[in-house]
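Lab notebook, design round three. We kept the backbone fixed and only want residue identities now. Task for the bench partner: fill in a sequence for the structure below.
Input structure tokens:
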């Protein structure tokens, strides 16, 4: 009787491992989630993306870029996204009249988001998201 239970538990264990391997979250899904989260944080009220998100992989790192138009001033835009990024666990690493940058460290990864002015009236911005192993 004990041998039957041992076989049943072994089969259940193998089945559980196979199911986990088939349906576990994929790394690409996780990365796309991080990019989408950063994108949403760069779009306060009065802002919209003007084109597609461009992504590029380089070995273990990824870079994504997109452009935004906003009806806010640069100062108001920085205040709005600064609050959003801090809520998401990012720290502000740079701010000037033309650029603002944020960083977040995860277990094994570092994320950077840089927003730069590329035009005015309306405010036209380029966002660069970078993720790489830390």
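Proposed sequence:
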């Amino acid at each position: 009787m004990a041998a039957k239970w041992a076989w049943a538990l072994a089969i259940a264990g193998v089945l559980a491992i196979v199911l986990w391997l088939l349906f576990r979250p994929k790394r690409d899904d996780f990365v796309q989630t991080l990019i989408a989260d950063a994108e949403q944080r760069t779009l306060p009220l009065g802002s919209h993306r003007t084109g597609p998100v461009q992504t590029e992989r380089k070995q273990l790192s990824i870079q994504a870029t997109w452009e935004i138009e906003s009806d806010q001033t640069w100062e108001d835009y920085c205040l709005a996204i600064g609050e959003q990024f801090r809520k998401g666990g990012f720290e502000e690493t740079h701010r000037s009249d033309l650029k603002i940058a944020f960083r977040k460290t995860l277990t094994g990864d570092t994320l950077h988001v840089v927003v730069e002015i590329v035009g005015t009236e309306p405010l036209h911005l380029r966002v660069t998201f970078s993720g790489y192993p830390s």
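Keep this in mind before ordering anything: Residues 2-23 form the longest helix (22 residues).
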